[in-house]
Amino acid sequence: MVNDLSNILDFGAESLVYVGSVFNMKVIVKHRISKPYRDAYYDKLFRESRTRIEARVLLDLSMNGLNVPKLIAVDLDNNVLIIEYIDGVRMDQIIEKLSDDKLRKYSYDIGYQVGRMHSLSIYHGDLTLANIMVSRNDKIYIIDFGLAGYSRDVEEYAIDVHLLKRSVEALVPSRIMVFMDSFLKGYAESYSGDYKLVLKRLREVELRGRYVEARIRRGLRRDRYVE
Questions:
Q1: C-beta separation of 22 from 1 below 8 A
Q2: Across the 227 residues of the chain, what is the mean pLDDT of every consecutive 10-residue run?
Q3: CATH hierarchy code of domain 88-223
Q4: Where in the numbering of this chain does the Protein kinase domain appear (predicted)?
Q5: Rounded to two decimals, what is the model's pTM?
Q6: What per-residue confidence (pLDDT) applies to 36?
Q7: CATH number for domain 8-84, candidates 3.40.50.720, 3.30.200.20, 3.20.20.70, 1.10.8.60
Q8: 3-state SS string for 148-182
Q9: Which residues are catalytic?
């Protein structure tokens, strides 16, 4: 069914991602690979479960009008997904070059998409700038739902926002306020739940993160003086 799998796009911890073609249409082929360190029975269950969840998430988001790659085919026996190829660039590759106006536009669009996603009780699980694309026609797409899932727990939504915020801070710390102001405007407009509750949980997640980092730093300082 899929032709030309010579182009490996990504070799992740759990999957091989190829660029291929189906009926002369460019596609992404994602193959969840077996891990020798896992028990064979549980390895098979895990890969089937993650493949099934990712396929369902992509279908649900696409059917509800979100900008995500369309699911073309699923092979559960071999844990393979065939997904629409998005022609564009990743946000982490262009954010440093964006004007403030363009950054505000993209940030708002990202927030709007994420708010709609969370309204469907779906969390991404790895929401970073590397998993957000700007297409050739200037649309924001969220990609790579390999760690996504379903939950009504706002903790999961807050973690998504926290991960995205940290990825922006890592690349363009001086522009984090510009990004987050517009992101949260878009999110508040589209999220159907209690937006303030997500913000409250986000602050708690950030405090926990800072506490852990402080403990690690204190531990490292102590280690320097231990003979």
A1: yes
A2: 57 80 90 86 91 98 97 95 96 97 98 98 96 97 96 96 96 97 98 96 86 45 41
A3: 1.10.510.10
A4: 1-227
A5: 0.88
A6: 81
A7: 3.30.200.20
A8: CEECCCHHHHHHHHHHHHHHHHHHCHHHHHHHHHH
A9: 126
